[in-house]
Design goal:
Elements lengths: L1 H28 L3 E9 L8 E9 L2 E7 L8 E12 L1 E6 L9 H10 L2 H17 L2 E6 L8 H10 L7 E4 L4 E2 L20 E2 L2 H14 L4 E5 L1 E6 L5 E5 L3 H13 L3 E6 L2 H10 L3 E4 L5 H10 L2 E3 L2 H11 L3 H17 L3 E2 L17 H8 L4 H7 L2 H6 L17 E4 L15 E4 L2 E5 L3
Parallel strand pairs: 1-4, 5-6, 6-7, 8-9, 10-13, 13-14, 14-15, 15-16
Antiparallel strand pairs: 1-2, 2-3, 4-17, 11-12, 17-18, 18-19
Amino acid sequence: MRASLVFSVAVMMVWGSAGTGKAQEKEKSAPKRIAVRAGRLIDGKSDTPTANVLILVENDRIVSVSAGGAEPVGVEVIDLSKATVLPGFVDAHTHLLLNGDITSEDYDVQLLKQSIPYRAILSARNARIALEHGFTAMRDLETEGAMYADVDIKNAIANGEVPGPRMQVATRAMTPTGMYPLLGYSWELQVPKGVQYVDGVDGARKAVREQVMYGADWIKYYSDRRYHFEADGVLHSMVNFTEEEARTIVDEAHRLGKKVAAHAIGSDGIAAALRAGVDTIEHGDGLTDALIDEIARKGVYWVPTITVGAYVAPGRGGNWTKMVDLEKVAFQKALRKNVKIALGTDAGGFDWKEVNQAKEFEYYVNYGMTPMQAIRSGTSVPAELLGWSDKIGTIEVGRWADIVAVSGDPLKDITELERVKFVMKSGVVYKNELH
């Protein structure tokens, strides 16, 4: 009798635990649904905002966007009815592993006195800062001597170990030997290098393959250096790679399915990069009318990084202030000729703790963009640049649920984007000051 009772109790416990397990499994498999009520929606593609919109999120995706829609019963509702809601911002040019680069001393100290693990820890902090400022996606364009640590950061974010924007990374930028810091130290010392030195066609092809092997999404190279003005009033530069070397970098990257970004500030460096067939021009201060026409014709993206230029110019002196003024003129001409301008800040060139990346929006409006154009330059345009236009950059069905909100109207005051109050990435709320 006692044995039979024990057996019966055991069976009940097994069946009971099995039933509980099934219930828990069902609960875990049930999609998480959130409804976001937007007072005004700027969706990244429409010409005008829409009032009173309901955005329904299921897990990490947007499943419906409806004007005046009713909240489904039993679904968590986030009330942003007094706010302006936008797609998460995209910064197409950052350096998570750098924390200020006004002078050579600023740069050298980081490479000489900070270990790569320490810099990686700071980069995780920087990623959190960027996310809280509303940047839910970024392209990080080289580690500045920290080898392939950007791949680790990207993976840690993707795996949910640390909060931050979704990333595409370029690992180690390329220059020929001796053409990028650290420079000027005794030949008896082996000092760190901020880039990967690449020489010759075979070396270029191997470097691309190596970076892709270690996780590079993009390949970046330095097209020029030594920026100077000549009698023609044009900003000139010294081109780093031979034509053959530069073309090899681009050809091999494209063969492996990767795109190429070129640091190109002077007109000579920009022209050389365009001849090589790059996908994006970074900085581009020395763009001439002819080069602007060529960029527009080829559909190459321009990432101006105005914030960093304005930030470092006073400390660097020399031609830098004039270069900032020159870029404003180039920006206005490029805008008139419909060049694809994608927002990029070069964050890391300025300290992440001192400047909000969204300052770049303000420069674009001051330089001639409408507020809506500026918003698209930091949402849908860089989404296209990254090849993610079906995933980010707009608020519409099927996109990742990357959503930000501000209290005011950025179409009236673009600086509202520097005061983001709500951030959702992949359906997870990381910041909400609009309770």
